[in-house]
Q: What sequence folds into this?
């Protein structure tokens, strides 16, 4: 976790707790070849150090593969899927998937991915922070990849299936996923699933204007001294925590924040970039 992770987690945690809802923890570990050993455990330890507590057991996507397979079977039965043999390097210069394999796979001898046929139409929704957003998914990205050629299920499919299976009614996350939301809604509609409410918090950036990166010194989290960084995050979320909270217990900071939280105070964008003072020395 880095400061951007803490920022987004705090917003979703506060929205759930202030409204008497549940806050769930899901480990999205589908891409097993790229998984860093111990990363999931370290994430949970960091969340606990910053005073987060989640409801129910931790869900791991790697344990839910039959659910994703069942969703693909359902889409295939309705004629909404097609096999695609396009390699990533063939599509690197394409702004959208050009439909090479829509009629039949270009290279039948190669391993096959599975894509959802996307027809032209506007998908729109009202984001509780960013306002109205709409996208023609077909024009923006084309047919959606749901299972890679190596058999790994796509993030898009997994989160849509999991959100429905877990009864998710509200999603609070970073604005870098805003343009991905219409694609999720398109898939939800194809599967006959309910669409949750969405709220996308603004992105935090480095002092040079780039997106926060885990490798940057300015965004390191120090679980041994969480109060100062949590207070910085609350301020960036539009809150004005009392100065004495910086030296109080982490539970006191959360109690104050939950009592004073309202999503309407969260800015659409951050006028100032993340200051170097946001880091806490070791």
A:
């Amino acid at each position: 976790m880095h400061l951007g992770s803490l920022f987004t987690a705090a917003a979703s945690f506060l929205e759930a707790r202030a409204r008497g809802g549940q806050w769930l923890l899901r480990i999205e570990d589908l891409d097993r070849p790229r998984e860093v050993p111990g990363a999931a455990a370290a994430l949970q330890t960091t969340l606990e150090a910053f005073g987060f507590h989640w409801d129910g057991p931790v869900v791991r996507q790697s344990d839910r593969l039959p659910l994703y397979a069942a969703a693909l079977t359902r889409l295939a039965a309705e004629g909404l899927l097609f096999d695609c043999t396009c390699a990533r390097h063939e599509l690197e210069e394409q702004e959208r998937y050009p439909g090479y394999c829509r009629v039949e796979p270009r290279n039948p001898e190669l391993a096959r991915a599975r894509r959802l046929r996307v027809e032209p139409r506007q998908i729109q929704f009202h984001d509780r922070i960013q306002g109205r957003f709409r996208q023609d998914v077909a024009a923006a990205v084309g047919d959606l990849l749901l299972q890679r050629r190596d058999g790994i299920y796509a993030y898009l499919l997994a989160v849509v299936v999991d959100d429905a299976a877990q009864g998710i009614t509200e999603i609070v996350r970073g604005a870098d996923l805003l343009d991905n939301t219409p694609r999720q809604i398109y898939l939800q509609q194809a599967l006959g699933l309910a669409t949750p409410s969405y709220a996308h918090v603004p992105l935090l950036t480095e002092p040079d204007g780039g997106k926060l990166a885990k490798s940057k010194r300015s965004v390191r989290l120090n679980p041994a001294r969480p109060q100062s960084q949590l207070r910085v995050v609350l301020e960036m979320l539009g809150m004005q925590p009392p100065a004495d909270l910086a030296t109080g217990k982490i539970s006191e900071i959360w109690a104050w924040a939950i009592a004073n939280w309202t999503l309407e105070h969260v800015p659409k964008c951050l006028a100032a970039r993340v200051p170097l003072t946001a880091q806490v020395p070791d």
Remarks:
- The longest strand covers residues 122-127.
- The mean pLDDT is 90.
